[in-house]
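Need a sequence for this fold. Nothing fancy.
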């Protein structure tokens, strides 16, 4: 019985190499695993890869139940000692994203 062998496999879709571990019990299996390619099932057409949501935008923008985009107001991260209490209270909470930016942000959020 042979020990497990690390196999380097190539993924045809994105032209990048990646690694995976394959437990090999028979040398013939090793040859088959090293030549492995992503092959779609017969009868199914190959689908396009899904678009990913922009990770920075999804952390900063929330979508309300009615579909509006909400964001935090700027100016409350640091140097708060020199800002007045009135200003700090005014900058609390969330506000709507401007209408000019809405289309671009919806595209980043894939909505």
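Here you go.
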């Amino acid at each position: 019985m042979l020990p497990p062998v690390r196999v380097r496999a190539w993924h045809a879709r994105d032209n990048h190499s990646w690694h995976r571990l394959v437990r090999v019990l028979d040398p013939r299996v090793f040859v088959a695993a090293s030549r492995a390619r992503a092959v779609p099932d017969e009868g199914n057409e190959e689908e396009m890869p899904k678009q990913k949501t922009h990770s920075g935008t999804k952390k900063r923008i929330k979508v309300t139940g009615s579909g509006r985009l909400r964001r935090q107001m700027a100016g409350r991260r640091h140097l708060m000692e020199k800002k007045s209490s009135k200003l700090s209270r005014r900058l609390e909470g969330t506000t709507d994203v401007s209408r000019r930016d809405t289309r671009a942000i919806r595209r980043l959020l894939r909505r």
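For context: Confidence is low (pLDDT under 50) at residues 17-22.
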